[in-house]
Amino acid sequence: MFKKVLIANRGEIALRVIRTCKEMGIKTVAVYSKADEESLHVRFADEAVCIGPAPSNKSYLQIPNIIAAAEITNADAIHPGYGFLSENAKFSKICSDHNIKFIGASAEMINQMGDKATAKATMKEAGVPTVPGSEGIIPDFETAEKLAEEVGYPVMLKATAGGGGKGMRAVWAAEDLKKAWDSARQESAAAFGNDDMYMEKLIEEPRHIEIQIIGDQYGKACHLSERDCSVQRRHQKLTEETPSPFMTDKLRKDMGEAAVKASEYIKYEGAGTVEFLVDKHRNFYFMEMNTRIQVEHPITEQVIDYDLIREQILVAAGVPISGKNYFPKLHSIECRINAEDPFNDFRPSPGRITTLHTPGGHGIRLDTHVYSGYVIPPHYDSMIAKLITTAQTREEAINKMKRALDEFVIEGIKTTIPFHRQLMDHPDYIAGNYTTKFMEEFEIQEEN
User: Fold this and answer.
1) 352 is annotated as an active-site residue
2) Choosing from 185, 252, 292, 421, which is the catalytic residue?
3) Which sign does the torsion angle of CA 186, 188, 194, 200 carry?
């Protein structure tokens, strides 16, 4: 087992890893930027090393500084958390070159799954359902026309260099294809200097459902069931739950088996998530794989009583997994609490927290790094807490979340607490009737 783990991250995930390490008798090293000097992960780690000024490209993304911190503290492993360098193949390789165990995927696995086109091709080989579409760049409009007929309308045109929704067009009928083709290419050329397009089948009323997996060093993988992450804004998840209200026993079994097949095919090591789009007919298609721990991992832990960070560390140390799959016994919901103003287009709201009162009681879990007097820096992601409720049924978990949100007081900054409170009262959310388009219709009501 590792003697000392350096956590190459900040905020609540750094604190989360420190807690599990302490329970396992492993010493910890926190790294921090000058903006995070007063952070709790710095206080609760056994050692702490400053790795640079506030901007993340001068601190948390500086591989030489992190490796130097590991070497001067004699850390024998690095846990990257999520975000920052957690899916950086170069970082994983450099750790390996310095005989420091990277608690995560190897550089080869990150490269294999990090590029969406490569990942899709790999999953096709593995026999995992993928979204039907072009095998690469479409050379001309005639090919696009032919392909759309084969795939069947509706289809989605996507710019290969795309991002942020640019260069994307949904096409519902053959007569609209030419106009969409021309405008998508023009937009992509203007935004990215590249007008290459590919095409996929448009998934109707899509839900974003992911399967949590764990793979060991001996080629074995198991799944820990699903999380529904469909409530999103600009592709950023806002709330997640498990089990999914859309899931059937058969779909859970089939998706779980597909995720394990995907993981074992690439001999995946560590905690990972196989992400799927599921259409209204409950057909599921591989979307991507995240080769790290996810923000929303606590809801899985709650419903199957399992410490995923502990399992990551054990697998990295060479301990084989049990190999059995897990299914939810309870219902759990997570609300991401961000320092943002939901009444002002979710504008970031950094600053000092003047008052903090956190909710408690049976079935309430709060993962956070903030405290009264803490100053939220403007340099990083705006998430400041994850509020998780767990109960016997979905209805009870929602009612518990309403109560917990009513108790949660954060003053001095704006937060997304009022948004989540309104979400928990929304009839479609209560009915479990939501897709990835849900937020396009949701209107937050101004508070009196």
Assistant:
1) no
2) 292
3) negative
